[in-house]
Amino acid sequence: MAQRSSFVVVANRLPVDEVTTPDGDKQWRPSPGGLVTALHPVLTEHHGTWIGWAGGTGDAPEPFDLEGIHIHPVPLSGEELERYYEGQSNATIWPLYHDAVETPAYKRRWRETYRVVNHRFAQAAAQVADEGATVWVQDYQLQLVPSMLREMRPDLRIGFFLHIPFPPIELFMQMPFRAEILRGLLGADLVGFQQKLAAQNFVRLARHLLGLRYEGQSIQVDGRKVKAGAFPISIDTREMERLAADPSVQARAKQIRAELGDPKTVILGVDRLDYTKGIELRLKAFRELLADGKLNVGDAVMIQVATPSRERVEHYQTLRVKVEREVGRINGEFGKVGTPAVHYLHQSVDKQELAAMYAAADVMMVTPLRDGMNLVAKEYIACRGDSGGALVLSEFAGAATELRQSFLCNPHDPDGVKDALLRAINAEPAELKRRMRVMQRHLRTHDVSRWAKTFLDELGVGETSDDSEG
Ligand code: ADP
Ligand code: F6P
């Protein structure tokens, strides 16, 4: 019998992926993305069960315990991976919810598989949740789970949090099974978003599409109240500060700068290789500043770390070609032997190395065309200590609502991006430190633990620490 929990998180991904090494051995490695970064410390604090996919296909690994979290893997077949994950989640919903910056594709068979897989996740939650337990469903891959689960287990308290933007009504209306998605979400007691505007879009959509009445942020559904609200997600700020202050990380930061030839300005980008992140436009801004003679190779160097992501989805393949072509062009035109202008890493790096890169970078460029939050921006700030540094941040990242002392820019305006980058590079150290301190203070109080607490309090859950039974 499955181990039962009073606190259950349901997310597409587990915090670890099972990977097969070249020798055929199975290994677990941290999985990518902001959702895992945010939820891992929450689950470590509250214990409970994490239901999710282990990253491979075929039979799911057996449930196991990891750092106080009970891990309950859900299987996906190869066809489900293609239709539910790559198709409906990442070629339909992901682009649609990100302002359709790439054209969403709509396919009936993807929708059907999305339903089947959502049902499987709901069943897994119904199986492991204790009587009256709290189940917190995460993100756009699982929008049907709240209503499916409510039908199976009306005794549960169900929360849902969307990590990515929620689109305006006119965009949402493109989706062929829009009413089903909306009803799916309305199965929750509380639906959380990154931004106030997203919560307002949702409430208005419920009236527009289903004729439901609402008062404030509360929607009336079948005699129940469903609340919507904004809960901006964050990072484990203290942990990130501690990591960056570690002498070995500081030493590595110095070494990185030395390996780069001790330039005046190190510019850094860190993202999943995703077309919403604006990687190309930031490379182009850098190239144009080199071409204009406003920056010189040797004085300024750029590092772009891009984690491989969703590599079988067409838009991602096209993006990779474009980014790599742009990196090649910049280095071809402006690099010197032994001194490239851009250092490009298409790989994931471990936490210590990432913290060292943040600590080494004078300017961090976070330039998404649209982003629910962007935790990279927050991580950079937490890693700066009192050494200043500048964040160039897109107005279209959720983080821009909070990080007002960054150098804000409109990523659709190339001159605006160049201008923000130059202002960041040329700002006085005292001004940079002042800006950084304000943002650091904000992040110390608005950390991931506060995010989780605020959401769970609003959901009406008191103490969530789990005392699971076998
Ligand atoms: P998203 O959830 O869309 O991927 P976020 O910026 O919110 O974007 O979160 C990304 C998370 O993944 C951050 O915690 C960041 O540290 C991590 N990350 C991004 N790129 C890399 C990389 N190349 N190597 C290791 N971690 C990365
Ligand atoms: O936060 C957005 C998000 O899509 C998460 O849901 C997801 O886990 C992460 O980014 C990484 O994406 P993926 O799981 O598709 O690799």
From TrEMBL:
It holds the Pfam family Glyco_transf_20. GO terms for molecular function: alpha,alpha-trehalose-phosphate synthase (UDP-forming) activity. One of its GO terms (biological process) is trehalose biosynthetic process. CDD domains: GT20_TPS (cd03788). It comes from the Bacteria. PANTHER family: BCDNA.GH08860, TREHALOSE-6-PHOSPHATE SYNTHASE. Belongs to the glycosyltransferase 20 family. This is Trehalose-phosphate synthase. The lineage of its organism: Bacteria, Bacillati, Actinomycetota, Actinomycetes, Micromonosporales.
